[in-house]
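INTERNAL AUDIT FORM
Audit reference: QA-55
Scope: verify that the stored structure record matches its stored sequence.
Auditor: D.O.
Record contents follow.
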Amino acid sequence: MRFGGPAIRAIALAAMALGVASLIIPTPAEAAMTCVPYARKESGLKLYGNAWTWWHQAEGKYARSQRPRVGAVLVFEQSGNMHAGHVAVVKRVVGKREILVDHANWSGPGIRKGQIHKGVAVLDTSPGNDWSSVRVWYQPAGEFGVRVYPTYGFVHDGVETAEDRAHKGKRDGKHSKAGKAEAAKTMPPLPERKPPIIGPSRGSIFQIAERPDRL
């Protein structure tokens, strides 16, 4: 069953009523932050390198799930201009298809790079409600963004369930070669460099991904 249309509009209205339309924390130029160091700090997960590799790096070290929980990290796949993926920390589970996240360096028209965004609504758009695709609240427009982002799922410090392992097997079969090869290249953490400050991009809404922790 296709998830969209009236259902998404209803959730958008509910999000506005609850006042969850993304609190943006202004950051001075010297404090600009990319998504990886912010997610690592907020979640406590000791993972490094490009955001999209977190799902594969977590194997055998942390639990991976298709169900959100507070404190877990939602891992976005590489897609479009988001070459390094993205990570966001779950702060509240609103319902089966909606969560609120805190994250950094999410950008688009009217949003400055390097900022921290808190209480951002994220909507699961996957047919099976497995959080394999999402839409993200776009504050300047006061609605969910038009782009659908593919995601791996959630990484957290806990125990995987049988359901988690079943989902993981299906997803790893699709992504294992590229993902594990990239994750294997991940080096021990190097001193984090402050990202350059670049004005917001123009055109369609998308997240401008850095390559965090890479020199």
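Auditor finding: record pair retrieved intact. The beta strands are 21-25, 63-65, 73-76, 86-95, 98-104, 116-124, 133-138, 143-144, 149-156.
Action required: none
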